[in-house]
């Protein structure tokens, strides 16, 4: 069985994330969305809210599960029995950031490889941090995030 983990903070979930999740779901028997508990950041949404939104958005995919994790990604990957870490790339800068992480993860767990999936061009400009900033200053984000995420963002105002 081919099992992959798609890790991230997903704060908030974007249409770019959903594109990668849908495409990843077609590549693996099981895809685990690993929502990172990052104590170094102040999230917009709680971990429970992010898991809830991702679960609702992926309900149509029986091979997808949404779980939280903290600590080392390689430990989570091993605990889930995964052999692949799925990461999205939007820009060359993403690759420069992600490659050393992938190499370090491989050094820590040689049973799991990182696969990079290029973001679809229509989502290449979308990032969670960008969405948060645009939203904070009153910009239009409706086409950057799924409807359920947009509705929850509006309730935060």
Q: Please estimate the helix content.
A: 40-55%
Main beta-sheet strand count, sense and barrel state: 5 strands, parallel
Strand order of the largest sheet: 3-2-1-4-5
Which range does the strand content fall in? 15-25%
The total strand number stands at: 5
Structure description:
This protein has 157 residues and is α/β, with parallel strands linked by helices. The protein has one domain: HUPs (Rossmann fold), CATH 3.40.50. The chain is built from 6 helices and 5 strands; from the N terminus they run βαβαβαβαβαα. The protein has helices at residues 15-25, 47-57, 73-79, 92-108, 128-136, 147-156, and strands spanning 3-8, 30-36, 64-69, 84-89, 113-118. The protein has a 5-stranded parallel β-sheet with strand order 3-2-1-4-5, sandwiched between helices. The termini are far apart.
Summarize the helices and strands and which ones pair or pack:
Elements: E1 3-8, H1 15-25, E2 30-36, H2 47-57, E3 64-69, H3 73-79, E4 84-89, H4 92-108, E5 113-118, H5 128-136, H6 147-156
Parallel strand pairs: 1-2, 1-4, 2-3, 4-5
Summarize the structure.
This protein has 157 residues and is of the alpha/beta class. 41% of the residues lie in helices and 20% in strands.
Summary keywords:
157 residues; alpha/beta; Rossmann fold; five-stranded parallel beta sheet; 20% strand
């Amino acid at each position: 069985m081919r099992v992959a983990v798609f890790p991230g903070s997903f704060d908030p979930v974007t249409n770019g994330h959903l594109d990668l999740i849908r495409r990843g779901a077609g590549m693996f028997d099981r895809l685990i969305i690993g929502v990172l508990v990052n104590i170094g950041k102040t999230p917009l949404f709680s971990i429970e809210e992010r898991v809830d939104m991702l679960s609702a958005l992926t309900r149509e995919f029986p091979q997808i599960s949404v779980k939280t994790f903290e600590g080392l990604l390689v430990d989570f990957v091993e605990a889930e029995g995964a052999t692949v870490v799925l990461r999205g790339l939007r820009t060359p800068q993403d690759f420069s950031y992600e490659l050393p992480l992938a190499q370090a993860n491989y050094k820590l767990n040689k049973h799991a490889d990182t696969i990079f999936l290029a973001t679809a061009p229509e989502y290449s400009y979308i990032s969670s941090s960008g969405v948060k900033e645009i939203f904070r200053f009153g910009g239009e984000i409706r086409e950057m995030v799924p409807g359920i995420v947009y509705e929850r963002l509006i309730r935060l105002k």
